[in-house]
Amino acid sequence: MPEPDDHLVIEPSVLYVGTPVYLVSTMNPDGTPNLAPASSHFALGRTIVLGLETDGQSVQNLADRPELTVSFPSGALWRNVERLSTVTGRDPVPDAKADHYRFEPEKFERAGLSPVASDLVAPPRVRECPLQFEAVVQRITPGVDAGFAMVESEVVRVHAHPALVVPGTDHLDPRAWHPLIYSFRHYFDRGSELGWTRKSRTAPTPPEIARWESFGGTWEVADVGDSSATVRLCRCDGGEEVSRITSSEPDFVAWAAVMAS
Ligand SMILES: Cc1cc2nc3c(=O)[nH]c(=O)nc-3n(C[C@H](O)[C@H](O)[C@H](O)COP(=O)(O)O)c2cc1C
Description:
- The protein is α+β, with helices and mostly antiparallel strands.
- It has five helices and 17 strands.
- β16 and β17 (241-247) form a beta hairpin.
- The protein folds into two domains: 19-188, Pnp Oxidase, Chain A (Roll); 207-260, no CATH class.
- The protein has helices at residues 57-64, 78-82, 107-111, 207-214, 250-260; strands at residues 19-20, 22-27, 33-38, 41-44, 47-53, 67-72, 87-88, 102-103, 115-116, 125-126, 131-142, 148-160, 181-183, 186-188, 218-224, 229-234, 241-247.
- The two termini are 28 Å apart.
- The chain binds flavin mononucleotide.
- Flavin mononucleotide is lined by residues 21, 34, 36-40, 51-53, 56-58, 81, 85, 88-90, 101, 182.
């Protein structure tokens, strides 16, 4: 008999499961920059797709001047982000927003954040944000709900704080990056690392395994549990087992779990 389903059927007011916050900067008609917090987005390849409300100034700016920056704040900047949660760059404020928003032309000042010139696009980046994209709009598609649009943009330049970059590479160090997460209207830091996918270019190979491989040896994960793992070290010729390593070191256990999966 299958287990009975113990989930509740509910009607949540939003479906914001948990996405990094970004600050989108666009150019206003008068040549000043707008800055708006948002979280709806995904990225694939060099394309970033933003979900933006159609009554905001940002999407209006992008329809007329298709350049933007997308700056990702770290968790530490949540208060700066929140200072933008009740302001719009749109004047007059649209009726639907009138109860909760007021017009603010000086968004950077309001947030306590600093504009820094971009290399390839007109809108500035946010200096305090450790990760910043410059992008050019490729297409704006109306949503099935007229209240939002999908803005597909090509990322043309990426700026990263040096502390986020693996030295000597173009890889972002996931362990150094703490995006601000927006989940059901609350802000979170991203929490501790659990593991990684096999495709990761920054995952650590346990030093003892790397050493064994450098001697030409092979290995096989013998057993992996929640808090410990055992790996067989084998000869390269014929795969005969030479010894075993059992470890409860978290990186070793996570590596073994990835390799065994
Ligand atoms: C944390 C956070 C996340 C938000 N996420 C979105 C979003 O994904 N899309 C969106 O259009 N608005 C989002 N908003 C609301 C916008 O900031 C709001 O629509 C604002 O009017 C945009 O500014 P603008 O009118 O100057 O463009 C979010 C606000 C906050 C504080």
